[in-house]
Design a protein that fits this description.
The chain has 181 residues and is mainly β. The N and C termini lie far apart (56 Å). Strands 1, 2, 5, 9, 12 and 13 form a six-stranded mixed β-sheet that branches. The protein has two helices and 14 strands, in the order αββββββββββββαββ. Strand 10 and strand 11 form a beta hairpin. 29% of the residues are buried.
Length: 181
């Protein structure tokens, strides 16, 4: 009985591990599309992009999450439709953004959308929660803040990086992220 339960838990773990990260071996499902961008996160004038994690639409399960490298390049699969940037996690703290504050629209499946060069300023508003000896940042415990977000259209570098890895078989559609006031 114990062995069956262990196997069940292991299989459940494998099934729940779905990544939205996109690479040259990934297939885009009929209901999915690809977003590309460059994201730069700073706090108190310091670039803290490396290893930051961003979450779209929700912040509990991480199904639409992406861990950034130092260059901030984002190439990610998402379901077609409207999405919003919800949570930003960095080693220096985290922030919950209000629902719909930073919105992207990707209405067609099987396409590639450039959503902008996105500069997020932590503005000394990143929050940390301490849990015993271990520093823990849990999204559910953070209040929502409207961090300053600047969207610019510097598509050439990002499109070139995408095309060098995946080829030029898809036209890139420009659909910049919109930030509400």
């Amino acid at each position: 009985m114990k062995r069956r339960f262990s196997i069940f838990l292991f299989l459940l773990f494998l099934v729940s591990c779905k990544s939205s990260k996109f690479d040259s071996k990934s297939a885009v499902e009929a209901s999915e599309t690809i977003i590309i961008a460059k994201i730069v996160i700073s706090n108190k004038g310091k670039d803290i992009t490396k290893n930051a994690k961003i979450y779209f639409d929700e912040n509990k399960k991480g199904l639409l999450s992406y861990r950034l490298k130092e260059d901030g390049l984002l190439i990610m699969k998402v379901p077609k439709g409207n999405h919003f940037l919800k949570h930003i996690y960095t080693q220096y703290g985290s922030a919950n953004l209000p629902d719909g504050y930073a919105l992207i629209s990707v209405p067609e499946s099987g396409k590639v959308y450039y959503i902008g060069t996105i500069e997020i300023d932590g503005n000394a508003q990143l929050q940390k929660k301490f849990s015993g000896i271990i520093r823990d940042v849990q999204a559910k415990d953070l209040k929502e803040v409207k961090l300053p977000i600047k969207i610019t259209d510097k598509r050439d570098e990002i499109i070139q990086a995408y095309e060098s890895e995946f080829g030029k078989d898809k036209t890139v559609i420009i659909s910049l992220m919109e930030v509400s006031k």
